[in-house]
Design a protein that fits this description.
The complex is a heterodimer.
Chain A: H1 12-26, H2 35-51, H3 58-83, H4 91-107, H5 112-135, H6 141-160, E1 165-166, H7 174-177, E2 179-180, E3 183-184, H8 185-203, H9 205-215, H10 217-222, H11 227-253, E4 255-256, H12 264-274, H13 286-305, H14 310-336
Antiparallel strand pairs in A: 1-4, 2-3
Chain B: E1 10-19, E2 22-32, E3 37-41, H1 48-55, E4 63-68, E5 71-72, H2 78-83, E6 86-89, H3 101-105, E7 112-113, E8 124-125, H4 127-140, H5 156-168, E9 184-188, H6 196-211, E10 215-219, H7 223-229, E11 232-237, E12 240-246, H8 252-260, E13 278-287, E14 291-299, E15 303-308, H9 314-321, E16 329-334, E17 337-339, H10 344-349, E18 352-355, H11 359-363, H12 370-375, H13 379-382, H14 390-404, H15 419-431, E19 437-441, H16 449-464, E20 468-472, H17 476-482, E21 485-490, E22 493-499, H18 505-512
The chains are: A mainly alpha, B alpha/beta.
């Protein structure tokens, strides 16, 4: 094991050298192209720092991270779905439904270790239902998740008769208000979700099949991969991620709202796409999505600090999404020719 | 290699398959010996693909018998075929672009390792084993690329190699079995996008596999390949078995006669038309990274062939001339006047029509009807107050489909047509307009012998009418047979210009390789 020279015969030593490099090829947190997104984030931060000195304080940055955490977690599921070549419009409604399940269970006196798994199960079930209809029913993801968006929202409203659910044991709020060192617990949750999801995406067969299905579904099927099963699981992941976000959201608000999570699907899609994941599927990373979510969060925060009206904020954020994707497309086109 | 002297690896007897309204196969036989390189020949629609789909388990036969190593077998699903060691490489490449070569090769069976103890359903990919196995396989097949490379970074030929490696890859458990676990490898026109050097690589791989006892079924329309690597041939025509013969003693005219059932006495029915005025002049045109210093002219009645290896800039040139891509330097003149194309519509307005290389992706809208496809470039001319009457589309399309003998009605959807007929529809798009400068990029790729001749005849008619044709092709015989002049490209430049009289395969190839001619 001295020097792995390319002239060496193809023996075990070389194989080991090959294997040693493997994780760096597939475990990329950011691809070279998505590096541009990081630069975008840095520029954005720099501009805000100049415009408002308060931006670059520890407390504000932690605040941004905390505010971003919910969208960032939802966007994890969205990234799985978009990588596989699909779309999930139902995430916001699943957040509401899972939150309502959680709130009702807590209100009914169930302990945390029962209520939270119930909520996660509700989200997972919604996602799996989406996935099953898409894979075995052969329906377009857009339509199926559009339907679920309305059904889950309706179910949450029906279940609560349109009223928020509140009055929880104070211990529950730890999920939102607790801190590990100086880091707020929602940020910890977000970090955990990203670490686990990144591992699944880059190191497991399931994760590789997510890319394979998005890159060439037919080829994947012909290779003997159980495409329908894996697609169902992918939407399950999305539902589960939404449910995790619902737990954090409910704790932050200290109440479960059936109207929570409105438009979350758009924020999650925006974070994913700004993060460089191709809407055609097969290409993208979770690192990119995290940066995408942070860009959205920083932008919101900065506009608030600058006192920009919320109406104008919507216009600015919409513009940023379009410009980010436009830049990406233009750069890609340039690289190709 | 083994003793048993010896039942054929595969015997298909009296295979019959009917679809609603058509009998696709009517009592077809196919016998494969171990190590056979068996050329399966026939025009489009002769039943080759159907037969192979039955072999691979994609279709079920209606009648007939299949024996494998002498034993009768049922192949009811792709899984059955895989278990017998039957592998098919389809015409469309089936790879996932953003995964690595190794991942693609072992996609259905990524090796996993157990990290958290047993029982967990998530397989953690064992990259070390994966790459080691892929390296071993690639080395074994004498393929020289890194298994970690994403497929998206490979060229078409290399992707084809990956596809072959993938077909030959077997799960670790089975690798002890003979012949890599693969007994029969079916290749459907594997060379259609390869340059001649790459074809040689592929052929030497085929020979190595055959030497190890793998039986190869090879479907092609290129007769030169038949004689280069074929050991035996089976010819199908209209779903029937015509002949199975050893390649020795079979001649080209005989083969064509068996396939076409009509004598194509002249392979290339070239009619030299009178040379008219200059239609197109290209002066020192360049496009960064793709083309440099391209100059030539095209006269009415002329066919100018463009030869070159894959990546030499042939398609790039075709696209620039058709207005699909821009150029950075030089001038293009049509009828002596300088023109500047900003989009394809401008080129069409000057009477330039492109028949693209990839007809499915660039030449046709598969879901639209024949008539609508033909009328597509002529919308401006046909429309009345912004409306496009279906009747005028049909009126435009009918005489053209008749002239080209497209076997379809104008109201049929294009995706339902065979390859040859689709190609004719693409041609028809430009016949309908006032196009005088035709750019044909690989006009006969994937087209059967009969349709090829019809396309060549059509080229003759076009030049007789005073049109000029630029024909990009990878098939040397076609270039030599149909061109009045051949421009040979190498690395984005025109490396040589050879007149019809002086053109030989050797000269064109030498120039294409960048050597002095």
């Amino acid at each position: 094991m001295t020097v792995a020279s390319s002239a060496a015969p193809p023996d075990a030593g070389r194989d080991r050298a090959v294997a040693a490099r493997a994780p760096s090829e597939h475990g990329l947190i950011l691809s070279a192209r998505q590096f541009g997104t990081v630069i975008g984030l840095a520029v954005l931060c720099a501009v805000l720092w100049i415009l408002t000195p308060h931006f670059l304080t520890v407390s504000n940055l932690l605040n941004v991270a905390e505010q971003t955490s919910i969208n960032a977690v939802v966007a994890v599921g969205m990234t799985f779905v978009i990588l596989s070549g699909g779309i999930d419009l139902s995430v916001g409604s699943i957040v509401a439904l899972s939150g309502v399940v959680l709130g009702t269970a807590l209100q009914g006196g169930q302990p945390l270790y029962v209520a939270v798994p119930l909520a996660l199960l509700a989200g997972l079930a919604c996602g799996l239902a989406n996935g099953a209809l898409i894979s075995w029913g052969g329906l377009p993801p857009f339509i199926v998740t559009l339907g679920t968006m309305s059904i889950a929202r309706g179910a949450a409203l029906l279940f609560t008769e349109g009223r928020p659910v509140s009055g929880f044991d104070p211990s529950f709020r730890v999920i939102a208000t607790g801190r590990v060192g100086f880091v707020p617990s929602p940020v910890i949750v977000m970090a955990l979700v990203y670490v686990v999801a990144h591992f699944v995406l880059t190191r497991t067969t399931f994760g590789r099949y997510v890319y394979a299905i998005g890159g060439n579904e037919e080829a994947t099927r012909l290779s003997g991969v159980a495409v329908r099963f894996h697609k169902t699981m992918i939407y399950g992941v999305s539902g589960l991620a939404s449910a995790v976000a619902a737990v954090v959201l409910t704790a932050r608000l200290n109440s479960a709202q059936p109207i929570a999570g409105m438009m979350y699907e758009l924020d999650a899609i925006a974070a994913t796409v700004i993060g460089g994941t191709s809407l055609m599927g097969g290409e993208g990373t979770l690192g990119g999505t995290l940066v995408g979510a942070l860009i959205m969060g920083v932008l919101r925060n900065g506009l608030n600090l600058l006192g920009v009206s919320s109406f104008l904020q919507q216009i600015v954020i919409g513009g940023v999404i379009v410009i980010a994707v436009l830049l990406d497309t233009v750069l890609k086109r340039k690289n190709r020719t | 290699m083994t003793a048993s002297d010896r039942a054929p690896v595969l015997e298909m007897r009296g295979v019959r398959k009917a679809f609603p309204g058509v009998v696709a196969l009517d009592g077809v036989d196919l016998t494969l010996e171990a190590g056979d390189v068996h050329m399966l020949l026939g025009e489009n629609g002769a039943g080759k693909s159907t037969l192979m789909k039955i072999l691979s388990g994609a279709y079920r036969k209606d009648a007939g018998e299949i024996r494998f190593n002498g034993q009768p077998v049922d192949i009811d699903s792709p899984r059955d075929a895989l278990a017998l060691g039957i592998r098919v490489i389809y015409q469309e490449l089936n790879l996932v672009p953003h995964l690595s070569v190794a991942e693609n090769i072992f996609l259905g069976a990524l090796p996993t390792r157990d990290v958290f103890g047993t029982g967990l359903p998530i397989g953690i990919v064992d990259w070390r084993t994966l790459y080691a196995r892929a390296s071993r396989l690639l080395a074994d097949l004498e393929m020289t690329f890194d298994p970690r490379t994403p497929v998206a970074r490979l060229g078409i030929a290399q992707r084809q190699m990956v596809e072959i490696a993938k077909a030959l890859a077997v799960p670790a458990e089975a690798s002890a079995a003979a012949h890599l676990g693969v007994s029969i490898l079916v290749m459907d026109e594997p060379t259609s996008s390869l340059t001649s050097r790459e074809v040689s690589q592929l052929f030497s791989l085929i020979e190595r596999l055959a030497a190890r006892g793998v039986s190869i079924v090879y479907i092609t329309h290129r007769l030169d390949e038949v004689f280069r690597i074929g050991r035996r041939i089976t010819v199908l025509r209209d779903g029937r078995h015509v002949a199975t013969r050893p390649i020795e003693g079979v001649s080209v005219p005989e083969l064509v006669r068996m396939m076409a059932n009509r004598d194509l006495t002249e392979h290339f029915p070239k009619v030299t038309a009178a040379r008219g005025p200059e239609l197109l002049r290209v002066e020192r045109v360049g496009r960064s990274g793709a083309l440099s210093d391209i100059s030539f002219s095209l006269h009415a009645g002329e066919v100018v062939g463009i030869a070159g290896l894959l990546g030499a800039g042939r398609t790039e040139l075709a696209r620039v001339l058709a207005g699909a891509d821009g150029y950075d330097e030089g001038r293009i003149l049509v009828d002596g006047r300088e023109v500047r194309f900003r989009q394809t519509a401008d080129a069409i307005a000057y009477g330039i029509g492109l028949l693209p290389e990839d007809r499915k992706a660039h030449g046709l809208v598969a879901g639209l009807t024949v008539a609508r496809n033909i009328a597509l470039p002529h919308g401006r001319r046909l429309s009345r107050f912004g409306l496009l009457p279906r009747r005028s589309e049909a009126a435009m399309a009918k005489p053209i489909t008749d002239e080209l003998r497209v076997k379809a009605t104008p109201t049929q959807e294009v995706r339902l047509l065979s390859g040859g007929n689709q190609q004719k529809v693409v041609l028809g798009k430009w016949l309908a307009g006032d196009v005088r400068i035709f750019i044909f990029d690989e006009p006969t790729r994937g087209v059967d012998v009969g349709s090829k001749v019809e396309i060549y005849n059509l080229m003759n008619r076009l030049t007789a009418r005073g049109a000029g044709i630029i024909m990009v092709s990878s098939e040397l015989p076609e270039l030599l047979g149909m061109s009045d002049r051949i421009l040979v490209m190498h690395r984005g430049r025109i490396h040589a210009e050879i007149d019809r009289g002086d053109a030989t395969e050797e000269r064109v190839l030498t120039a294409a390789l960048g050597l002095a001619s």
